[in-house]
């Protein structure tokens, strides 16, 4: 077996371990918030429940709010890098469709977990600012990546921010439609939504 293959396998194992630790921390945070209420939970308790040290906790999340919401800086960087990747025949809105679909892919999309997280967030008004901040961070990261992809200076054009905002809003609308008993399946509805958007945004 070649050294390169061993290196690839080691990287794959490390990445899987990181994903598992991140998910364990997210689940521990949700468990504790359900049991005790958000204000009574500490980062040390979340780390202990997940079986890691308090120091390890902060390698993944900057705060207990972030641990409940679940999005990491590493994930934001990954989304941005994917958007900057130019593929033949793929428009910016098509790239956003690909990235957002990846976020909701079977490997990462857990309907029960998403429903549970939503229930907890709605039941903890103190988390509202953190959730809004998380959504803004995602939108800003994707907007900056799209500006780089298009070769425009930050803030010099409105199109990148509008494109990202509309794409995120479309996915959010499809999820809300599904969770409220709407017709069709999520993936098909997102496809239909982006087909409509593409007519106007190209």
Automatic annotation (TrEMBL):
GO terms for molecular function: DNA-binding transcription factor activity; transcription cis-regulatory region binding. Residues 42-61 bind DNA. Pfam families: TetR_C_14 (PF17754), TetR_N (PF00440). This is TetR family transcriptional regulator. Residues 19-79 form the HTH tetR-type domain. It comes from the Bacteria. Gene3D superfamilies: Homeodomain-like, Tetracycline Repressor, domain 2. Keywords: DNA-binding, Transcription, Transcription regulation. InterPro entries: DNA-bd_HTH_TetR-type_CS, Homeodomain-like_sf, HTH-type_TetR-like_transc_reg, HTH_TetR, MftR_C.
């Amino acid at each position: 077996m070649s050294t390169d293959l061993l290196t690839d396998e080691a990287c794959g194992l490390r990445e899987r371990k990181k994903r598992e630790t991140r998910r364990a921390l997210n689940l521990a945070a949700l468990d504790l918030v359900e049991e005790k209420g958000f204000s009574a939970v500490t980062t040390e308790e979340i780390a202990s429940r997940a079986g890691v040290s308090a120091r390890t906790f902060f390698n993944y999340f900057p705060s207990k709010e972030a641990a409940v919401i679940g999005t990491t800086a590493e994930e934001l960087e990954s989304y941005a890098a994917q958007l900057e990747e130019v593929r033949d025949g793929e428009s910016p809105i098509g790239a956003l469709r690909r990235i957002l679909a990846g976020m909701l892919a079977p490997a990462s999309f857990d309907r029960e977990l998403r429903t549970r997280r939503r229930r907890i967030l709605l039941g903890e008004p103190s988390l509202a600012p953190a959730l809004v901040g998380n959504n803004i961070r995602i939108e800003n990261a994707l907007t900056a990546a799209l500006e780089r992809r298009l070769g425009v200076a930050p803030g010099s054009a409105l199109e990148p921010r509008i494109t990202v905002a509309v794409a995120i809003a479309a996915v959010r609308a499809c999820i809300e439609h599904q969770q409220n008993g709407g017709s069709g399946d999520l993936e098909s509805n997102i496809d239909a939504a982006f087909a409509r958007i593409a007519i106007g945004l190209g």
